[in-house]
Every structure is written in structure tokens, then in C-alpha cells.
Design the sequence.
């Protein structure tokens, strides 16, 4: 799953039939059917049934299923649904210990939500788990647990966010940034996407259809960036053809690290275009 793009991962409440139908058309890189926070207790059963029906359909993207946490009245039935419906991955809320991943049945990739202080501290151990596909930052619960004040630049959370990225990248897993709550602030959303990308996140979890395309753009590769990568690779190949072990591009020394990065940019560009 890590070879896919994860620029935008759209949360969809599994009890909202209209949202489930619309989600297939929005162009998100992945859809996350939510049985947990977005569904009221009295709606859990209906949500489970609609999630099963949705997972039986053909989707243009991976579909993940967020189950309720262990110890809740709904956890066991959520796992039974996952076993029967076979989503592309299961999202676990408030993971604080890799042991929480060990007893889970099935073979689906697991996505661990890191949304508590202990989860942040143990993120490297969680990311190292063999079934972990990625880490998802959950800043709403984390900010509350840390008693931080609201900050549009997320300065109180930067250490935790970077810790999530560091843990995921160290183990070859996908780090996904947290949601942006104000769906009426498109510029603030883009600003936070750019910040998340600068921090090293692969993409962003989103909660509204209007956030999908901006996330795809901010975490994607522009035509200009792709052309720049092609030109750097051409300079490298020319230098190698001339028997030189180093190359220069735009006045800067080109090393193997830059070549690898350019190839990654083009791979992302190709996957995004496809």
C-alpha cells in the first residue's frame, strides 16, 4: 500500500448514505469509512450495515475502515465486519502500545491513530509493528490531552507532529496529517497542508469534499516540479555518459541523493496523474 499516493484521505461517516455515495466521485486518494467518532452510539449498527454494503462495491481508490476502540461495546462487531468485508486497511483509534496491534485477527494492513501523549512517545514502536501500514496524527484529542491553546500555526503540536513523521519514515510507513476542522477556511486549510508537507507528511486526512482537491494539489507534484526533476536527471545522465562521477544542475552539485529524490518526485507525479 505504500506505493500508492495518500495526498487526501477522506473521512466519511458510515451512517451517512448520501456521503458514502458521493465519496466515490470526489477524487480522494483513499476513503476512510468511520464507525467511531463520527457515528452516534444509537447509529452504530446502521453504520456497520451501510459500511458493509459500501465495501461490497467497486471503488476507484483504497477504502479503509475505522473501528471503535477495544473495550467499547462495538469493537468486536466492527472487527467481524472487517473480517467479512475485507477493507483495504483498518484504522485503530488512540493506539498507545504496539501490543494493541498483536491480537487483531485478519490480514489487513493496520493504520494506527496517534492522538494521545503516550501514543506519541511510543510512535516508533507502533510504526515498527509488522502489520502497521501508517500512522495518522489525531490532533483534536492530542491538543485536549496536552492542554494546549488554539494556535493556527500548531506550534504547541509541532514536536508531536514531527515525532509521528519521524517514527513512520524510520520504518518505511506512511505518515498522514490530522484533519483541519474549519471547513469554511480554505486558505487556512491550504496553509496547514503546506505545513504538513514541509514536516514530511505524505498527505492529509480530510473531513469535507471541498478539502479533497486542495489536499491533492498541496501534497502532489506540479508540472513545473516534474519538469525540474526531469531536467536534473538529464544533467545527471549526461555527466555519467561523459565519464564524470558528479554533475551540476542550476549551479548546484548533484549527488545520488538528489537523483533518488528526483525519481521519487516523478514517480509521485505519474501515480497522481494515473
Sequence:
Amino acid at each position: 500500500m505504500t506505493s500508492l499516493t495518500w495526498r487526501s484521505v477522506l473521512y466519511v461517516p458510515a451512517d451517512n448514505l448520501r456521503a458514502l455515495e458521493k465519496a466515490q466521485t470526489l477524487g480522494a486518494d483513499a476513503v476512510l469509512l468511520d464507525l467511531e467518532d463520527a457515528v452516534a452510539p444509537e447509529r452504530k449498527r446502521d453504520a456497520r450495515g451501510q459500511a458493509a454494503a459500501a465495501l461490497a462495491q467497486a471503488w476507484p481508490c483504497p477504502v479503509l475502515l475505522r473501528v471503535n476502540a477495544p473495550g467499547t461495546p462495538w469493537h468486536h462487531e466492527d472487527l467481524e465486519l472487517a473480517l467479512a468485508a475485507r477493507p483495504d486497511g483498518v484504522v485503530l483509534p488512540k493506539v498507545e502500545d504496539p501490543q494493541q496491534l498483536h491480537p487483531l485477527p485478519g490480514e489487513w494492513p493496520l493504520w494506527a491513530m496517534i492522538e494521545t501523549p503516550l501514543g506519541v512517545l511510543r510512535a516508533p514502536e507502533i510504526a515498527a509493528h509488522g502489520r502497521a501500514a501508517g500512522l495518522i496524527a489525531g490532533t483534536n484529542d492530542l491538543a485536549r490531552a496536552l492542554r494546549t491553546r488554539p494556535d493556527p500555526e500548531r506550534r504547541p503540536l509541532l514536536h508531536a507532529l514531527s515525532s509521528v513523521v519521524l517514527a513512520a519514515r524510520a520504518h518505511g510507513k506512511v505518515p498522514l496529517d490530522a484533519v483541519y476542522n474549519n471547513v469554511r477556511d480554505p486558505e487556512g486549510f491550504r496553509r496547514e497542508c503546506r505545513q504538513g508537507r514541509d514536516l514530511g507528511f505524505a498527505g492529509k486526512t480530510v473531513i469535507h469534499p471541498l478539502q479533497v482537491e486542495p489536499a491533492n494539489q498541496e501534497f502532489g507534484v506540479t508540472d513545473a516540479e516534474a519538469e525540474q526533476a526531469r531536467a536534473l536527471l538529464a544533467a545527471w545522465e549526461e555527466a555519467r555518459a561523459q565519464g564524470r562521477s558528479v554533475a551540476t544542475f542550476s549551479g548546484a552539485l548533484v549527488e545520488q541523493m538528489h537523483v533518488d529524490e528526483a525519481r521519487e518526485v516523478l514517480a509521485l507525479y505519474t501515480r497522481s496523474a494515473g
